[in-house]
Amino acid sequence: MADITDLGFETLCIHGGHVAESNRAHLTPIYATSTYTFDTAEQAIDIFKGEEKGYVYGRFGNPTINEAEDRIAMLEAFGIKGADGKPLQLKAILHSSGMAAITTMLLSNVKAGDKIIANRSLYGGMQELVDKILPGLGIQSIIADFHNVQQVEDAIKADGAIKMMYIETPANPTLQCVDMAILSALGKKYGLIVCADNTFATPYLQQPFKYDVDFVMHSTTKFLNGHGTAVGGIVIGRDLEKMNGIVTKTHRLLGGNSNAFEAYLLTNGLRTFSLRMDRHCANAEKVAAYLAGNNSVAHVNYLGLESHPDHAIAKKQMKHPGAMLSFELKGGFDAGVQFINKLRMCISAVSLGTCDTLVSHPASTTHVGVPRERRIEYGITDGLIRMSVGIETVEDIIADLQQAIGNK
Ligand SMILES: Cc1ncc(COP(=O)(O)O)c(C=O)c1O
Q: Is 166 an active-site residue?
């Protein structure tokens, strides 16, 4: 095979991270083993000392898991040069979920007394972690409006305890997008660790390492797996010493490791990643255009529409506006519930990034317990519908929406 740096993105989706297997299996098998053997006591000593490469124990590593890790690291690094002018080298660690990956990244970088600065619009699980778990560990968070860079800089200048900047772009459910180049440069100016959740965009559409961020996290449950067959998460870092040191240690000790079966499903899904993304994106553009012209829809949040307030930022840092959108039904809460009940093909489910179109009504599901005022403050209005546009025949998606909305 050619040198890895000469290979295209689509090739890496298929071959990246693959290591020939001793039984000549075409695909890396599902290594269903909890531990590994040593030929001699001396070999065990060498492996434990790190003088010989080798697997030791399932929580620490597994060949099936390794393939997924190396492949995703290659996709995030694709075409990027490091400070030395050479192709960027990244290390990735696969976890049992996106939340497990985020937790490892946080706990290996911040300690009691440190603070995190994060954007207003965070994935619900991260928001709860910040509100309910981290304060108990002595880690407070400052939530700022990342569109207002001066406000972010003032907050950082005013509080020397801020050690980390946490970026999530685009974000749920209004597809708010923030400028990674500006924010990362600001974070670096003040010596912060900068990290980015790249779940919605994926490395196909956006590469945060271009902007010098230190860590990228994903819920691999979503577009990377692509088929809704496994929950998983990954943390990827550019400081290899840190990744092989404290981050690996934290991952092993917290025990949020992935498993061979789900890693296999992920690498299998990745083989068609770029093809799927092209279709997801093309379909989303057509669905957004349809919804924007429907008179029962008050507005559509899609980064490809000029009406989206962050259209220009998305254009600057994303290859395509992506496959996620949301829209507001004029009839409010009841219209949202009725719409979901009428769907015939699109699936009513939370999550995103699967081949099939997933639709949810946050006000009656994920956010039913959030006080209305707070929910609306975060853009989750009564009639808001979130869509992860799938790769079905686009006319079928639109026809289903049309009959469920009930006009045009
Ligand atoms: C942006 C984002 N980050 C992280 C997560 C958490 O991932 P997981 O559910 O795999 O733990 C999600 C889940 O929906 C998400 O949407």
A: no
